[in-house]
Design a protein that fits this description.
The protein has 222 residues and is mostly helical. It has helices spanning 2-19, 21-40, 47-50, 52-76, 80-85, 91-120, 128-154, 159-170, 172-186, 190-221. The chain is built from 10 helices and no strands.
């Protein structure tokens, strides 16, 4: 299973490296979202600074939807999804591979967004241990849920518009938990952030287990 996961993740990342969709489209979109938030909120009033954690994770979720749609658009082209079904790979391995590839792309985007937040919002990160673990748990949860709902929507003609409607409400706990943990890290009150990291970890583990068992039937139906 883990060998299959590494093979699928490597394949997806190589495709992204060659196509540069994440670099040429998703990354500029992420920065544009931050710039628009900066224009919409008055930086002199302090509102922008106080809203930084929420704005950061909203931008991450928007980028995640694009990355997940891209991950399954690759499989929908030229009958690749049928080839994936007939490949003999473990469905759980395919799920984990897709999840790992999405995690890698989101991690890179989060670094870019973190730099953008520090520069545009004058809000340098603090509380590194809490902040890093928050990003790891939140990224894993987003990728696990996104992979599961991505394959669910992949077989539908309206998948581009249906996926956000299915996924974003499910990721509301991730948005809330990661924002609260981010605020605790920035305010140097880590004791208030660790319970939220625990919630994010439970969410990520739950969707990873559910996805590993449920991905196969969903792949067959998509």
């Amino acid at each position: 299973m883990f060998r299959d996961a590494l093979a699928v993740a490597g394949k997806d990342l190589r495709i992204e490296a060659r196509s540069r969709v994440a670099l040429n489209q998703v990354a500029p979109f992420a920065l544009l979202v931050l710039i628009l938030f900066a224009f919409a909120l008055d930086p002199d009033s302090g509102v922008l600074h106080s809203a930084t954690p929420g704005l950061f994770w909203v931008a991450v979720l928007f980028c995640a939807v694009l990355a997940i749609q891209r991950a399954f658009a690759i499989e929908s082209a030229d009958g690749n999804q049928d080839a994936l079904r007939l490949s003999g790979l473990e469905p759980a391995g395919v799920f984990l591979g897709k999840m790992l590839a999405i995690c890698a792309q989101l991690a890179a985007l989060e670094v870019l967004l973190g730099v953008g937040v520090a520069v545009l919002y004058n809000s340098p990160p603090t509380g590194w241990a809490l902040l890093v673990l928050t990003c790891v748990a939140a990224t894993a949860g987003i990728a696990a849920a996104g992979t599961l709902y991505g394959v669910l929507a992949a077989g539908l003609r309206v998948r581009e518009t249906l996926l956000p409607l299915l996924l974003l409400p499910v990721l509301a706990p991730v948005l809330i938990g990661s924002t609260r943990a981010f605020e605790a890290a920035r305010n140097s009150t880590p004791g208030q952030g660790w319970p939220w990291v625990g919630l994010l970890a439970v969410f990520a583990i739950g969707y990873t287990i559910f996805g590993a068992f449920g991905f196969g039937p969903l792949l067959e139906e998509s």
